[in-house]
Design brief:
By secondary structure, the protein is mainly α. It has helices at residues 6-26, 30-57, 75-89, 100-119, 125-149, 156-161, 167-182, 190-203, 222-242, 247-255, 259-267, 272-344, 351-374. The protein has 13 helices and no strands. Helix 3 runs parallel beside helix 4 (100-119), helix 4 (100-119) packs antiparallel against helix 5 and helix 4 crosses helix 9 (222-242).
């Protein structure tokens, strides 16, 4: 209800409609949930195509604050957008409507009514939640339609250059808009769809449905009447408030207490992105930093210490092997080789050397013998 980007406005609308589908499946009205999946595919696809046509013709301007009065320049696009706005809003009279969204969405709400009635207490939230959304949807869709196609141009230059989209864009939009109408359950009427839903649930032994009257006479007429007229009322309020731009909305923001705070809250998307950033992104980064510290200085530290210790031990054992073990072996070999070299000089193969050595030996022996005799 506060977005100014036309595509963002439709994107958030898609989220609410997906919520309807899931709620329908959870509450047992899965026939209507699947039906809403089909109808939503038609009218939401048409809405996005219409917004694409507007953006394309507006020279890629997506901000609705610069639109206004484009129905005069793009009547067929405005027609398709308007039909799908009525469809997603679930506009109807009593239990009859030509718009498919009336049947599929209100069928889901009917299923949640049955489910909430059986649960009791806080279970009523399953009913009142989609009811509130059912009132909000026509308001923000009327806002989108009014800001884009109604009132006076808010950017005259943009308005002067806008024209109807080409047939290749307009024709698919009109076909989808037509499908959003003709996909109503004429072949399988509203009453029969309720009965099929009930019978399916009973056959699946869903006990809370057993006590509901066969045709649910006490509420299946009153609820569509309530939502159909309420949708029309909120649609009218949205068009009245925004057909001339943001003037009335800005006036209410100034005059209604607390509305500015609610507007800021919605504009910041309920601060969901901020909460997500704080509790998920930043906490994840913090946890990652802690894990990185533990990994770097804990696990990697132990691995590095073990690696350096192993490297030092390998250096020590290498040095001991090279200097001590190999030194002893090499020293013994070198000593043996030196001794051999020394002994080789005593046997050169010459007789005079042998005689000289023999004479020296005899002299030494005689001197030793004389020492023994005289001593």
């Amino acid at each position: 209800m506060v977005m100014t980007d036309i595509k963002s406005d439709l994107a958030y609308s898609t989220l609410s409609q997906l919520g309807y589908m899931i709620l329908g499946v959870g509450s047992g009205a899965y026939i209507f949930a699947l039906f809403h999946l089909i109808t939503h595919a038609f009218f939401k696809c048409c809405l996005f195509q219409c917004s694409g046509s507007v953006i394309n013709m507006a020279h890629h301007q997506q901000d609705m604050r610069y639109y206004g009065g484009l129905a005069k320049k793009m009547p067929l696009t405005a027609l398709a957008y308007g039909i799908c706005t009525l469809t997603i809003s679930g506009i109807g009279i009593g239990s009859f409507s030509i718009f498919s969204g009336f049947y599929s969405k209100d069928g889901i709400i009917l299923g949640t009514y049955n489910y909430a009635h059986e649960l009791g207490g806080l279970g009523s939230l399953f009913f009142w939640g989609p009811v509130i959304v059912a009132y909000i949807t026509p308001f923000y869709m009327a806002r989108s339609f009014a800001l884009t196609f109604l009132g006076k141009p808010r950017d005259q230059h943009l308005y002067d250059h806008v024209k109807e989209a080409p047939k290749t864009m307009v024709v698919p939009q009109l076909i989808l808009a037509l499908c959003a109408i003709i996909s109503v359950p004429w072949l399988l009427p509203w009453e029969q769809m309720i009965e099929v839903t009930r019978e399916t649930l009973v056959n699946k032994n869903v006990t809370w449905i057993q006590g509901i009257p066969t045709h649910a006479e006490h509420h299946h007429i009153a609820l569509p009447l309530l939502f159909g007229l309420a949708g029309a009322l909120m649609l009218a309020v949205g068009i009245w408030m925004y057909k001339d731009g943001f003037g009335k909305a800005e006036y209410l923001l100034k005059k209604v207490p607390g509305l500015k705070l609610l507007y800021t809250w919605a504009l910041n998307k309920f601060y969901f992105d901020h909460l997500y950033d704080v509790f998920f992104v930043k906490m994840t980064k913090c946890f990652a930093a802690i894990c990185n510290f533990i990994d770097k200085w804990g696990f990697d530290g132990l691995v590095n210490v073990a690696g350096h210790w192993t490297k030092g031990l390998a250096w020590f054992t290498g040095a001991f092997d090279n200097k001590v073990v190999d030194g002893l072996v090499n020293g013994a070999a070198n000593s043996a080789r030196a001794g051999g070299q020394a002994l080789r000089t005593t046997q050169p193969g010459r007789i005079r050397v042998y005689v000289s050595l023999l004479f020296v030996g005899l002299v030494i022996a005689l001197m030793f013998a004389m020492t023994l005799v005289t001593g």
